[in-house]
Amino acid sequence: MPFNYVSFFIPILLFNVLYWLYYRHRKKKDRGFVLAYYRLSYRRRFKRNLWTLPLIIVSIIVILLLDYVPIFVQMGYVFVISVGTVIELMYNYKQANKEREDI
Questions:
Q1: Domain range spanning residue 18?
Q2: What pLDDT does 33 receive?
Q3: pLDDT digits (tens, 9 = 90+) for 40-61
Q4: Is 65 left (phi over 0), alpha (psi -120 to 50) or beta?
Q5: Minimal CB count within 10 Å: which of 34, 35, 90, 95?
Q6: What is the pLDDT of residues 61-96, one digit of tens each?
């Protein structure tokens, strides 16, 4: 029986949307430990993104070393993860600077 991706990802997406809606207008935290990404200030989001860069690099290396994954899937993964990470880093950096100027 093939894996049903839709039934796997719909609850995850729904949970993320509800979580985002809950923390959207709440005060963001800039100090201390916070598990919820949406509760972090943009400065902390930027730092967390920098901390996850080694994990992203390792995941790219692992996907490229797997022989049974088709090359177009590998290249698509590398492209999406790389571009997404760069865009997220740039956005959070810009918002962190804007947030700092507003204070």
A1: 5-102
A2: 78
A3: 888 999 999 999 999 999 999 9
A4: alpha
A5: 35
A6: 999 998 888 898 899 999 999 999 999 999 999 999
Tokens of 4: 């049903």
Phi, psi of 25 (to 5 degrees): -110, 15
Q: Which residue has the tokens 């100090």?
A: 31
> Which two tokens mark 103?
């204070």
Return the structure tokens found at 28: 């963001």
**Could you tell me the pTM of the whole model?**
0.77
Cα separation, 61 vs 53, whole angstroms: 12
Judge contact between 40 and 96, C-beta under 8 A. Answer: no
Instruction: Collect all residues with Cβ–Cβ distance below 8 Å to 72 and sequence separation of at least 6.
Output: none
